Fold these 4 entries.
Entry 1:
Amino acid sequence: MDITFSGLQKWYVSLFEKYGWVMLSKQNDPLNQTKVDEYARKIEKWLELANNKLRSSSVTGLHKEDIEIMIRNMNKLNNILHNRLPVVAKGGSLDFESDGFIISSNEREENNNKKNVFYDIYGFC
């Protein structure tokens, strides 16, 4: 599946906007895990398509730099999501990745004890 740069960009913005709604949904209904799982799968799919687009020969110059920046930001959002909410898929809890490395449950606990990552990045929560 191929995606245009414009489509990738619009989907990127949509995923960041939806983060707040997913957090509110989970806060209002703690049993509503399906929305969180669906959102996590959408982020993973976006990352897959963005990495494919980055590797394609059709992307050059500023678009390539823009995609690299979007991928870094989406990885941050993915880490925040997995830090704040347990993401369950296929019957098990998914470990989250930070720069391509799987983080153990001990490291996850340490990360949860640190300052709120979302606040660090965006200055609000």
Entry 2:
Amino acid sequence: MSREYRKIDVTGGILTGEELYTLAYIRAALSFQRLGMKWSRNVPMGTTLARKMLGLKGRRESLYKQVDDIIVSFGGESLPEPVEE
């Protein structure tokens, strides 16, 4: 069963509130994934969302950095690095 993902164009000069919220959601899912956790069993992994919705390539750490850079470029704030114990 193939799932359809809505594409977000981050090359333009403006994002809607919904698109910015989606970017923040993807960043949060990637942040969870970096710590070895999964957001939910019913939601795709953060890496899948970043690749399918944003068209990004790379591994988990690279995808997190790319999504964070996109959010910062549109006026958002970068999240602090998670502390691993």
Entry 3:
Amino acid sequence: MNKELLKDFRDEYTEKLEINDKNEASLKVLMQRKEILENMPVIQDYIKLVKQIEDLKNEVSTNKELFLRTLFDYEGKGLVDETNSIFVYDGSFMTRDGNIIRTERNSSDAEFDRYIDIESIEEVDIPVEDRKLFERFNKVIFLDESLPVKQSLYEIHNQFMQDAITNGEKAACKRVLSRNKKNL
């Protein structure tokens, strides 16, 4: 073995052992002090208080979380039985070999338009030739094309439902229609 490296190793190891022994002694003193403090009534009350706070933090939800959980429960019970005929335009489509393919709204290949009811989240496919009639008798929201329709739809749906519950359906309709890019 290399005697010089062996000596350096021994010196470094001895130094680390001394530091470790000091740390163990300090830890022992701190642990004893901690035990003494934990047995003091005021510290026991503090520990209980901290635990209660942490437990409640885990049980407290944001208003949005509470609303969405409650909405989910009530939608399963048939909360929306009749809608206000407000739809989000999802796009124009054509079918080829049994596949549905998105196309431009004004494309000559477009066979139908898909609209999604903001209250029931139900999709409605309307033949292109009936588009104007459908859009005349319903309120249609055209979203910013840079946003994913489904994500935006769920945000609109949740906001509409929250507004309907807190401010009434008329106010919810007015708000949802005023906040969107283009309505027919």
Entry 4:
Amino acid sequence: MKQAKGLHKWLLGHFLPISLLIISYLSGWPFFEGLHFSEFTLVVLSFSALIYISYKSKDSAPCNNTFLKVWIIYIIFQLIIGLFYINNYYVARMYLRNSLTLLCCYSIYLFSYPKYLFQCLHTWYKYFIPIFVICVIPVAIPETYFHFLIPLYIGLILIRALPFKHQVLILIVAIFFMGGLLSRSNLIKIIIFSIIGYVTYSKYITKKIAKLICAFLISCPLLLFILGISGVFNVFDMESYMGNYDVEMSYTSEGEERGRSMIKDTRTFVYAELLESTIENDSWLLGRHPSRGYTSIKYQDELDENSGMFNTERMNVEVGILGIYLWTGIIGYLIYSAFFFNTIFSSINRTNNHYILSLAIALSFIYAFSFVEFTCAPHIMYIMTFIYLGICNSKAFLNMSNDEFKIFIKKIFSFKS
């Protein structure tokens, strides 16, 4: 019994937070896609730890979302079907990666417990500064800095809950990276989360106003998608209505800099190829399952280099919502969206504190931006999204008062044990 409690404490206090550190560190490396063994090992071990912790916990889970249960059941169905399509090593490897990506939603149950979330994040924040100075700064790749600091987003979203000195520190870090990063998506995320953190915690942002903001953010990508496929207006074709602009820096697998226009359209062809592929393969309803990808002419050279003669389909999708649609079909997309919508609006209706409103609005932005980015992969941004979903689905967090929630966030950022 004592050994079980010791393992339970070690998993929560050390293993999971350090796993988050490693995943966030590797997420920023330009050659991270090639580190499949490390990626698989970390996610498998972390996921096993989550199952163990949830099973051993004596407390009933604070999260009881019906849509989440339906989503998990549907994912299991997809995993079983996907097994029958594995015919070589490359497909098996990507099946494992994509399956673990989809199953990461199980972590919502863990993160809905305040004590578990505190132990994970508090340990992370205690260790991240020395690791950042020793391991990350010497690399001198802006993308590595950015991804490693993604867990600080929760500090931006809930910045009004922190003491003034912590607010200043987080803002300095955010401004520093805004000046050093030329990636448009990273800049957008930092700016939006900063605005959410400061503007939404206000007496003028009532529950009714918060729901209107969330509804607007959620409906925007859906409206733009309809306008795009109808040929009326393509939001991704920025050069047609903005002209040319500065360069966005990206990196090759060797870490070398390369530039491209910050307004270059890098998404229209992804949508076109993926949608055409699912329609041609008659997989638009149930998806192509985690073991299959989509036919891509644009990335054919990349496919030839990575998989040789093993596979002619592209498994990775830069657009998060397209990844969900590719693997689970329109049925999976509807269940996934229903879970997001239910979490957002239910948390606003049920919460006793104002900070949940900020997280609900942030989740609405994440859902909207998943039509542009937020790759579905065992990536630190993907995992942090489930932390936000865990908080917004937790009865314990929803029942907290403003003062109780504020104390909880302060303790996370404290360096005291």
